[in-house]
Amino acid sequence: MKRWWHARELSTVAILVAEVLLFTWYLWPEPGRTHPFFNLGNVLLIFKYSSIYGIAAIGAAIVIISGGIDLAPGAVIALTTVVTGYLFVNVGAPLWLSALAGSGVGLAAGLVSSWLIVRARLPPFIATLGIMGIWRGAAYIVTEARFYDLSAKLPRGWHIAGMSIDWLGPIVMIVLAIAFQRFMTGYQWGRRIFAVGGNETAALFSGIPVGRVKVLAYVISGLLASMSGVVLAVVQGQGKADLAMGYELDIIASAVVGGASLAGGRGSVVGAVLGALIFGVLRNALPQIPGATFYDRLIVGVVVIVIVVMDQIVQGRTQR
């Protein structure tokens, strides 16, 4: 099983590398011109915006591995930017305190979602769909169709610990990916998440506290979605209710492309981040191809289906 996981992650890396090579070749410029796709500035741009999806995709992958689904990350991200922006711009709170309070949005979403699923016995799809609507609606109520301009209060070209703010998202994403990959594979609670997703009844009879494991999975997902929201608010310099609209589907798709099975019990945190980068490259490269912008969503949908079908074929062969 462990060897299969490594093979799955390596295949995701191979897809990402092939994608980069394809666009590098297709967008090769005329002599004397800078490559529009394969240059340091554009690579940073891809990592910068992919990290918004990638951080949340880590949490989405953990929930999917546990046998659930979380449709609320997009709304959590939006409300987090609103709360962070309101406290930082209107109240005058320090940025660190505003970001900490914004993270409470995700914590609350995870706790309420898990209570509805574990205690009220609602299906995860319904519970998180309801949370998505409530949290998005709360963001609109707070802003009243306005937005909070964080960029007006943030110093131009500011750095954190000597690091450009553009690197904040990518570094946070990479650190979290390494930490949660270790948590999921090297610690008892991480292995319990796999066990619950693989066979909840067997996990219950083996003494695993299934309810607590589910609460942990949804709280982690909510907190990581809030971290994405904080990064988005700081990098984009705005707190708006309509930010991250539709992100939840891209976040789930990143986790699935990275190897997470919607049946539960299988998945990879690193794979989810790689999946986010695969989609990040697509979103960055397609607008540079004349006419391809209109095919953006279509191509993303085809990529999800093709990769998941290939995954099912490989999985079927390994189980024979």
Descriptive notes:
The two termini are 13 Å apart. The strands form 2 sheets. This protein has a two-stranded antiparallel sheet with strand order 1-4. The longest helix has 27 residues, at 210-236. With 320 residues, it is mainly α. The chain contains 12 helices and 4 strands.
Please state how the strands of the largest beta sheet are arranged side by side: 1-4
Uncertain runs with pLDDT below 50, 5 residues or more?
A: 1-5
Distance, first to last CA: 13 Å
Q: Tell me, rounded to a whole number, the average pLDDT.
A: 90
**Rg, please?**
20 Å
Question: Helical element count?
Answer: 12
Instruction: Choose one word for the global shape.
Output: globular
Give the H and E element order.
Answer: HHHHHEEEHHHHEHHH
Could you describe the largest sheet, including whether it forms a barrel?
A: 2 strands, antiparallel
Strand content: under 5%
Structural class: mainly alpha
Approximately how much helix is present in the residues? over 70%
The beta-strand count equals: 4
Assembly type: single chain
Give a quick precis of the structure:
By secondary structure, this protein is mainly alpha-helical. Helix content is 72%, strand content 2%.
